[in-house]
Amino acid sequence: MWELAEKKTTPIYQQIIEQVITYIQDGTLKPGDKLPAERKLAAFYQVNRSTVVHALDELVSLGWVLRRQGSGTIVNEGNWGRSTTPRVDWRSLFTQESHPNEPFLEKIQASLNDPSAMDLYSGELPLGLIPDFRFPSYTWEELLLEEKKQSPLGYRPLQQVICQRIKAEQKIDISSNQVLITSGAQQAMFLLLQVMLQSGDSVAIEDPSFLYSLPIFASAGVKLYGVEMDREGMRVDKLEQLILTKKIKLIILNPTFQNPTGSTMSKRRRNELIKLSQKYQLPIVEDEVFSELNFSAIPPSLKELAPYQVIHLGSLSKIFGSSIKIGWVVADQDLIQRLSEAKQMMDFSISIFPQVIAHTALTDPHFEKNQAALVAALKQRAQAFCEESQAIAADWNVSKIEGGIYVYLTWRHRHLTRKDWEIFLREKIVIAPAFLFSNDTMAMRVNYTRMTAEMRQQFFLKLQTISNELRRN
């Protein structure tokens, strides 16, 4: 078993790496199996012990094996970092069909170019609500000095601030080598797909979910399977059925102020989800980009409940807009290293400038006060929206708004078609119909934060007119 092919030009340590990975992939070595001791492997391969140590170190960094003091080297039982050296499948690039844009999205984009249209589609706060902060002036030389504080994982001062905030908010002690700075949460998601999954793998997500609208899954050849939700969040019984029938490799969800429904998963359901993921040894990716926009206490994050089972994604774009496109991944150190290597290979480097801005914003002495003022303003808009929505209550069921930026409105009557939703665009109200996020055509996502009092009044007047037309149709 532990023999190498003769007359191979590849370095011996690489041949050892390839052989161990092959044994794991074909089932010769199973999760939890123990490898022979270093001295025995060196004798089997007839090489120096240092060559074996080099190969095992590489396998550890790639996530294929683990070293435990007193137990030796064992095959990794989790999915973290399970991937061979990245390869480009050139054949698939030539044969893969392009993924056409959703026709309704093209109409939405055209409508957004009309300055007279009411934009309730975009996933950002209006400029008037974005917290302000004083940005110190930097000379070019000073920025170059800040550049020296950059590591492959990101701008170190920003990493440290994120660690401090996570410790304060989620009661988790993490170090900087467990945080990777990315250009927004979507880039973080893309890197996770590249490192943790292969083409043809299956992922479980919420239904409905904004993830359906992202092209990164189709580009990676990853299959998405939606899991039905109820008032407490993703249904764990439905998820287990998918795990057993579709060979799910990863669970990705947005448990707090979910996009598009605005709902929050209960603590009880979070614990059930974690228990199920541990049962099947499936990692969870938790997208928590809205959690700081909460009007009252929210359940503990999944990361807080299961620090080693959950990969946490965060972002500043929901607070400061897309102008500060900074996100981060919090995960096991080995996985963060793999993500960092993939990020460098894809040349996804992030300029020092937005990272310095993000650090300045988070360390501004008025940040907490400004954020509290933002949340208060959002709460006021949410309450006004819910009060004024009574005018359309006979036609639309309006979800509770407990935080975040979205409200979900569901039509109470007959089945709606895509053609029906075009009435909104004709009336210059740009919303996100549910069919962008699932197979449902009966609901819409509305960004309530973008409405002033005048816009809100205009929205509900137009919505009554549209509702009358939908009923007539």
TrEMBL record:
SMART domains, per the entry: HTH_GNTR
Residue span(s) of domain HTH gntR-type: 10-78
Gene3D superfamilies: Aspartate Aminotransferase, domain 1, Type I PLP-dependent aspartate aminotransferase-like (Major domain), Winged helix-like DNA-binding domain superfamily/Winged helix DNA-binding domain
Record keywords, A-Z: Aminotransferase, DNA-binding, Pyridoxal phosphate, Transcription, Transcription regulation, Transferase
Keyword Nucleotidyltransferase: no
Transmembrane regions: none
Record carries keyword Transferase: yes
An annotated Gene Ontology molecular function: transaminase activity
Similarity comment: family membership: In the C-terminal section; belongs to the class-I pyridoxal-phosphate-dependent aminotransferase family.
Name the UniProt record assigns to this protein: PLP-dependent aminotransferase family protein
